[in-house]
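Summary of Year 1 activities. Much of the first year was spent building the evaluation harness for sequence design. The harness presents a backbone, in tokenized form, and records the residue chosen at every position. We chose the following record to illustrate the format because it has been used consistently in internal testing since the harness was completed.
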């Protein structure tokens, strides 16, 4: 139960990271930060971009797997229909 809470707490939120990136960009564009603060925010932004890229790559991979599985199911369903039609044709031919 405790482990589930840790997983939920550590779970990456793409939307949250994107909002944070937008805030960082606004801060950098404002010109109100010192050079040191700008560097800290820039580094943080780079880290968020990398995390977002990883998340998107994983999401893309999952989608591709799901599509491939769906294609297999559709193909299998089509083969079953063709087999059933062939059986019907054979029965009618007798």
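For this record, the design step produced the sequence shown next.
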């Amino acid at each position: 139960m405790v482990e589930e809470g840790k997983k939920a707490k550590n779970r990456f939120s793409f939307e949250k990271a994107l909002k944070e990136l937008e805030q960082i960009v606004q801060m950098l564009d404002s010109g109100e930060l010192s050079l040191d603060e700008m560097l800290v925010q820039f580094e943080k932004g780079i880290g968020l971009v990398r995390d977002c890229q990883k998340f998107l790559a994983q999401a893309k991979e999952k989608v591709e797997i799901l599509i491939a599985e769906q294609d297999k199911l559709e193909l299998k369903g089509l083969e079953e229909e063709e087999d059933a039609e062939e059986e019907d044709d054979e029965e009618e031919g007798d």
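The first helix runs from residue 2 to 10. Quantitative recovery figures across the full test set are reported in Table 2.
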